[in-house]
């Protein structure tokens, strides 16, 4: 498992992050020297001293304190500034600490964690006028904003590549699929739509769409301006973001548009390869470097037209033309896959993807690199039982695996036409190291869902009338053979469109050979649910590279500076909005990241190119500035508020109040540290 990228990226991000914090402290240091405040120490990094320099003493391993003690008989902090100067010795020790994250400035008579720290000397922090102390306290923030703007300018002068704001996959049950066309047209965004504005603000990248959704007020709709191919005028939609099931962030339920070329990256092929095999593309000669050139008779340049064609197919095969890496062309009819509705079983906490209470079994689509079950499970295995439970659906299977972290579990799989028993290993994170999909290429049924929650009530599903146990197989529908789930869904959907109230199924229970005839009733609610069953591409869009766009000033330094100032302002506002949304609850606490998480994300960022890394460091620098100036005790913003009080009242807040505020600030910062550290470690362990 690759936790945080390769070593060079890790070192680069640690040094960059540490440098930004050191620059923050350098701002305090330079301002303190300007204000005439004595600075006893300026250190880069944290922890034990590794190397130190003091003018008049020179370079020393560790600290210069022993050398000063030996020369003067006391530490430098106890010696007056005048005496040190007379002896040619600097009052400040410049040090390098062991941990390359952060730094600190130690000023005479000032200690963030000890409000009572003071000195009556004229060169102490407390003896300095209030307005100068305000400059010193706020200098760290300024020191982070200046390099942030400079980094933005450097990035935009060359250009930074981002995922473009075009729509790729649209989640069938997501807000975007129900977006209201304000001109009265059909509801829903479509793959290939280009989002140009949100609430009047220009959209330049897909990240802008994600941020606007996540930062929106719960329950408040967003106004989208969309450009759609074949439509002359921009379209306007209204969509209300909803919480994503996984991240619990507000989202409109779309993915970025994807390109039409099969990637050559081996990691991407781990995801895409099994689907190419199952769709018959590998056998036809389509592999890494091949491109989709036509869907039907229409030329394509992205994956969007394939997604639209599959969505409109009703389950019928979609004709495609591919250009292989050697220049040849092959035609392949791709079979769309059904996107089953999500229902809430009455006896389970997780929603299931099911058709009228019927769900497919779980198929092992492929094995991930380093899987603990590489010699036990195979691509194409269908899970018949897990830990004694027969016929788990994909949702139930994920839940059961997670509940058995660190265990060896007995499971049965359908392989090469027969059942095979294996001993599978679940790792400490609750994973088998496999990719799973619904077993749509069979007609087997998972454990049926007899009752579901619908509209606040518990109702019987149509599947309850079948009295089918797990691992039953559907052999026919209204006398016509059924070979797989794809044919089953298409046939039931067609029957519902005819308005029939039931269909006849030939059902073969597990362990039997002969089918028994049974009736599947179709109520009006069932027929409406069937009408809403969507179809999607058999090729996972996430396996293709995203369509990118480049933000660039075209080499114009003035425009680059303007873009840098705009990004700095936008990110500062976004940081405050994030805090507001945390308080409101629309941004979950588990999305917070600490230093470890920033380094983790940064190593991935470094893989996207040097300019994107520069852009990322600029964002971190702005965040450091904003967070340090929050009105919280022990950070710069809280200290600044104390100084404002002192300027207005002619005296600082009482020592008792400062002590209480400091303890409260320590408790809050400590809690945030623990939460973010826990989040960071869990992401590393889970590979998130």
State the secondary-structure class: alpha+beta
Q: Give me the Rg, rounded.
A: 31 Å
**Percent helix:** 25-40%
How would you state the average pLDDT, rounded? 84
Q: Low-confidence parts, pLDDT < 50 over ≥5 residues?
A: 1-5, 594-603, 683-688
**Tally of separate helices:** 15
- Major sheet, described briefly? 6 strands, antiparallel
Q: Outline, from the CA principal axes?
A: elongated
Number of spatially distinct domains: 4
Tell me what portion of residues adopts beta-strand conformation: 15-25%
The count of strands amounts to: 34
Quaternary structure annotation: single chain
State the distance separating the first and last CA atoms: 11 Å
Describe this structure in words.
- This protein is α+β, with helices and mostly antiparallel strands.
- The chain is 34% helix and 24% strand.
- Helix 12 (595-606) packs across helix 15 (655-686).
- The N and C termini lie close together (11 Å).
């Amino acid at each position: 498992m690759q936790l945080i990228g390769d070593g060079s990226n890790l070192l680069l991000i640690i040094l960059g992050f540490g440098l930004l914090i050191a620059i923050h402290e350098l701002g305090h240091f330079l301002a303190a020297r300007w204000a005439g405040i004595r600075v006893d120490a300026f250190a880069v990094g944290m922890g034990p001293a590794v190397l130190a320099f003091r003018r008049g003493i020179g370079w020393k391993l560790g600290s210069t304190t022993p050398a000063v003690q030996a020369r003067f008989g006391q530490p430098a902090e106890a010696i007056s500034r005048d005496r040190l100067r007379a002896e040619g010795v600097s009052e400040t020790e410049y040090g390098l600490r062991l941990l390359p994250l952060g730094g600190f400035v130690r000023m005479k008579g000032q200690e963030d964690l000890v409000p009572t720290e003071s000195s009556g000397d004229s060169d102490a922090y407390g003896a300095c006028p209030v307005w100068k102390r305000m400059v010193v306290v706020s200098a760290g923030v300024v020191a982070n904003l200046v390099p942030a703007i400079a980094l933005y300018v450097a990035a935009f002068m060359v250009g930074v590549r981002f995922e473009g704001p075009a729509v790729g996959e649209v989640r069938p049950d997501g807000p975007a699929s129900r977006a209201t066309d304000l001109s009265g047209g059909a509801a829903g965004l479509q793959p290939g739509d280009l989002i140009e504005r949100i609430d009047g603000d220009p959209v330049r990248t897909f990240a802008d769409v994600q941020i606007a959704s996540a930062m929106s007020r719960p329950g408040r709709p967003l106004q989208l301006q969309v450009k759609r191919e074949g439509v002359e005028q921009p379209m306007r939609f209204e969509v209300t973001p909803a919480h994503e099931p996984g991240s619990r962030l507000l989202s409109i339920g779309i993915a970025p548009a994807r390109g039409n070329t099969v990637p050559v990256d081996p990691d991407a092929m781990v995801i895409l390869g099994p689907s190419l095999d199952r769709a018959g593309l590998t056998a036809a000669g389509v592999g890494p470097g091949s491109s989709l050139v036509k869907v039907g008779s229409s030329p394509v340049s992205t994956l969007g037209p394939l997604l639209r064609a599959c969505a409109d197919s009703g389950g019928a095969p979609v004709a495609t033309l591919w250009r292989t890496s050697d220049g040849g062309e092959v035609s392949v009819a791709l079979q769309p896959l059904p996107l089953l509705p999500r229902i809430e079983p009455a006896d389970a906490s997780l929603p299931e993807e099911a058709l009228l209470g019927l769900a497919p079994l779980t198929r092992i689509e492929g094995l991930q690199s380093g899987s603990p079950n590489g010699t036990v499970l195979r691509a194409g295995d269908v899970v018949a039982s897990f830990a004694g439970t027969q016929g788990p659906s994909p949702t139930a299977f994920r839940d059961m695996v997670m509940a058995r972290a660190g265990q060896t579990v007995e499971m049965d799989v359908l392989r090469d036409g027969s059942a095979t028993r294996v001993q599978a290993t679940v790792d400490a994170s609750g994973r088998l190291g496999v990719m799973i999909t619904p077993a749509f290429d069979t007609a087997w049924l998972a454990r049926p869902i007899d009752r579901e929650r619908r509209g606040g009530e518990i109702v019987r599903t149509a599947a309850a009338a079948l009295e089918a146990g797990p691992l039953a197989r559907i052999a026919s529908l209204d006398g016509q053979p059924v070979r797989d789930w794809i044919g089953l869904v298409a046939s039931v959907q067609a029957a519902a469109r005819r308005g029939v109230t039931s269909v006849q199924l030939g059902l073969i229970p597990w362990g039997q050979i002969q089918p028994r005839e049974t009736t599947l009733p179709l109520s009006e609610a069932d027929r409406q649910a069937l009408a809403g069953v969507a179809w999607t591409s058999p090729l996972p869009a996430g396996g293709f590279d995203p369509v990118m766009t480049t933000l660039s000033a075209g080499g114009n330094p003035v425009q680059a500076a303007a873009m840098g100032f705009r990004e700095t302002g936008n990110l500062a506002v976004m940081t405050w909005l994030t805090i507001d949304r945390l308080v409101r609850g629309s941004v979950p606490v588990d999305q917070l990241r600490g230093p470890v998480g920033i380094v983790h994300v940064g190593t991935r960022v470094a893989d996207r190119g040097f300019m994107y890394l520069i852009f990322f460091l600029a964002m971190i620098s702005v965040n450091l500035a904003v967070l340090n100036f929050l009105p919280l005790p022990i950070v710069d913003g809280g200290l600044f508020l104390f100084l404002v009080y002192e300027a207005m009242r002619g005296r600082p807040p009482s020592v008792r109040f400062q002590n209480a505020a400091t303890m409260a600030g320590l408790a809050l910062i400590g809690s945030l540290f623990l939460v973010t550290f826990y989040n960071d470690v869990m992401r590393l362990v889970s590979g998130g």
